[in-house]
Structure formats: C-alpha cells, structure tokens
C-alpha cells in the first residue's frame, strides 16, 4: 500500500515538473513569436535624425600592451559593451512568465554597424555584432559585448623621459551619420578599470570620457564623437637605477681624474678609461631609449652632455701633463742659469690647472644635472 502511494507521488511530481517546463517553454516561444520574430532586421528603429536611436558604450580597459614612441601608437586590450534602444523589442514580463531578458542571434535583429574607432590603425575599425549573441531586455534595450585588441594613434611626447606622462585613448563615432541616425548617450556610457592588469612600465593615473558635437559645414550637419582618454605615467624607478644612476657615478668619477697625482703616470689612462666607459655604456642603453625625431628628451641631452664633458676631461688632462712637464724642464734649465727669470715665480703648474679644471668640470656636472632635473619635474 505504501509503495502504491509512493509511486503515485512520483507520478504527480513528474507531471507538475513537466507542466511547469511546458509553461516556461511556451512562455519563451510566445515571446519570440509575438515580439522577437516580428522585428525586421533590415529596418532600423529610427525614421530620421529627429527619432535617432540612443547608443551607449561601456569601455573596460583590461591591459596596456605597449606604448610605442617610434610608431606613435598605443596598444591595449578592452572589453566593450554596446547598447541601444529599440522600442519594438519591449514586452511585459508578467505576460511571459516573468522573463525579463533573452539571448538572440544578431542576424535576427537590427544592430548598428557604423560605430567605428577613428584613430584605430588596424583593420577592424568598426564594431560588428555579426555571429554574436545579443541580450534583449524587456524595456527595449539591446546589448552585446565583445573583446577588442586595439592599436590606436597617439601623440607620444618623450621630452621628459623617464618621468613622462602620456595622454592616449580612443575616439569613436558614427561613420554613416548621414544615413544611420545614432545619438551617443554620455550619461549611461562608462569608462571602467574593473579588469585592469598592471603594466610593468606604465601606470594609469586618470581616465575619463566625454561626447563632443561638432558641425560639418560641407554637409550642413552635426556629428558626434565619444572620446575615451587615459593618462598614463611611466614607472621611472627601473630607468633611474639602471641608467641614470650609473651615469651620475661616471660623472663623479670624471672629477677624480684631476685628483690622481701627476707623478703616478695614470692620469691620462684613467681619463681615457672613463671616456670609453661612457661611450660603451651609451651604446648599450641605446635600445632602451625612446626613439623620436620630433623631440629630443632632456635625458638624452644630459647623456650627450656627460659624454662631451668626459671627452673634454681627456683633453684637459693632456693639457695638464703638457704644462707640468714643460715647466719642469724650464725649472731645471733655470736652476743652471745664474740669473733666474722673475716670471718663473709666477708660473702656472699642473697642480694649479688640476684644481681649476676640477672646479670647472664640477660646475658643469651640477649645471647639466640641474638643467635635466628642473625640466623634467616642472
């Protein structure tokens, strides 16, 4: 008897679940039949510019791939969500089993095809929802999300390298504004950093977006563009430790060329060693330096100045040795002369020149470093 009741309970439960599934399936089928399938994908939801469709863009930057100073480009990975309104796709969820959203193939609905990135240099400049799933909500809004690997034009200013700041981003707009009437909704668009992965060279300090309207007199119409801007600062610690600090150390060593005693015979060798070290070091770090013909970084000017000073030290040391040994010979000759000349009392020696050149090179190093520092931090 108990077994019979148990079987009866299972039958009733299975029937209820089956009926519920049929109701749900029926609700979804009715929704597609009455709403989704009635929309002609070839007909846009607008009639003219007065009834334009509002479009929102949500840009979520995921990573900074590269900032190329030579090519003047900014590379990044983005998660982009486009949304637009279509009043033909609205329904009352209560009439369809509280279904508030459905996934629909893009080929069954109209979607904007003229939203493009104007500063993109790759092949995929325009967004295309083809072969993608669109999410349709009961209040008549449609969204689709796509991943974007973008290489965009960006004016790179390396004047203050390695303490430089760059302003890059994406400029989007309606490429067929004369026939496809779209209006970018700034209020509901967004620029997010939710999934951002840190970059080893660049750090995002600020991000913003805005919609700009400008009049085209030739077409007697107004076009809209939405701009997404990033302020990125270079992480200077590695450059300071690996490049700037060694140059400063070499510039200090240059001063010690004038401290080495003349009698040691190592002054010229020491000066030449520092000069060659500078030359080799600059050759090594050449690949890591930003390459731009428009502007010369203050850091490059500082490095070249130090190389010139190092070469000048070699010339000055040669002059010190010449004066020292010339006057040494003159002194020996004057000692054998019965009437020493008065001018020997006021002769300039190599030691005097070492002191004068030491101060000159010290002041040159300080001036060149301050010139570099004050220009990059202002």
Helix percentage: 25-40%
Q: Look at the structure and give the mean pLDDT.
A: 84
Largest sheet at a glance? 7 strands, mixed
Low-confidence stretches: 1-25
What is the strand tally? Answer: 11
The helix/strand class is alpha+beta
In whole angstroms, the N-to-C terminal distance is 93 Å
Shape: rod-shaped
H-E order: HEEEEEEEEEEEHHHH
Number of helices: 5
What percent of residues are in strands?
25-35%
Radius of gyration: 37 Å
Can you describe this structure?
There is one protein chain. The chain is of the alpha+beta class. It has five helices and eleven strands. The strands form two sheets. Strands 1, 2, 3, 5, 6, 8 and 9 form a seven-stranded mixed sheet that branches. Strands 4-7-11-10 form a four-stranded antiparallel sheet, with no helix packed on it. α2 (237-255) packs antiparallel against α3 (267-284), α2 (237-255) packs antiparallel against α5 and α3 packs antiparallel against α4 (298-335). Mean pLDDT is 84; it is low at 1-25.
């Amino acid at each position: 008897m108990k077994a019979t009741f148990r079987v009866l309970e299972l039958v009733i439960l299975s029937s209820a679940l089956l009926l519920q599934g049929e109701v749900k399936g029926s609700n979804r089928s009715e929704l597609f039949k009455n709403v989704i399938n009635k929309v002609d994908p070839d007909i846009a939801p607008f009639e003219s510019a007065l009834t334009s469709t509002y479009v929102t863009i949500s840009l979520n930057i995921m990573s900074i791939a590269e900032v190329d100073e030579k090519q003047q480009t900014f590379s990044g990975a983005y998660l982009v969500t486009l949304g637009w309104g279509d009043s033909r796709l609205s329904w009352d969820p209560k009439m369809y089993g509280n279904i508030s959203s459905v996934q629909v193939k893009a080929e069954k609905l109209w979607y904007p095809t003229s939203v493009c990135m104007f500063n993109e240099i790759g092949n995929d400049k325009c967004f295309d929802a083809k072969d993608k799933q669109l999410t349709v909500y009961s209040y008549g809004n449609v969204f689709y999300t796509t991943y974007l690997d973008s290489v965009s034009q960006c004016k790179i200013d390396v004047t203050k390298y390695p303490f430089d700041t760059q302003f890059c981003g994406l400029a989007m707009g309606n490429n067929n504004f004369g026939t496809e009437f779209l209006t970018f909704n700034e209020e509901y668009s967004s620029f997010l950093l939710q999934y951002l992965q840190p970059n080893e060279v660049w750090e995002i300090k600020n991000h913003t977006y805005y919609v700009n309207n400008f009049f085209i007199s030739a077409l007697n119409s107004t076009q809209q563009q939405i701009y997404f801007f990033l302020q990125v600062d270079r992480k200077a610690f590695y450059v300071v430790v690996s490049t700037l600090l060694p140059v400063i150390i070499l510039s200090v060593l240059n001063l010690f060329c004038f401290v080495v005693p003349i009698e040691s015979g190592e002054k010229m060798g020491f000066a030449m060693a520092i000069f060659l070290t500078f030359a080799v070091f600059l050759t090594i770090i050449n690949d890591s330096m930003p390459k731009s013909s428009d502007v010369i970084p203050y850091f490059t000017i500082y490095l070249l100045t130090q190389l010139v000073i190092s070469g000048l030290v070699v010339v000055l040391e040669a002059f010190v040795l010449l004066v020292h040994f010339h006057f040494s010979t003159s002194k020996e000759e004057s000692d054998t002369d019965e009437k020493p000349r008065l001018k020997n009392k006021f002769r300039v020696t190599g030691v005097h020149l070492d002191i004068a050149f030491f101060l000159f090179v010290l002041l040159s190093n300080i001036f060149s470093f301050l010139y570099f520092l004050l220009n990059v931090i202002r």
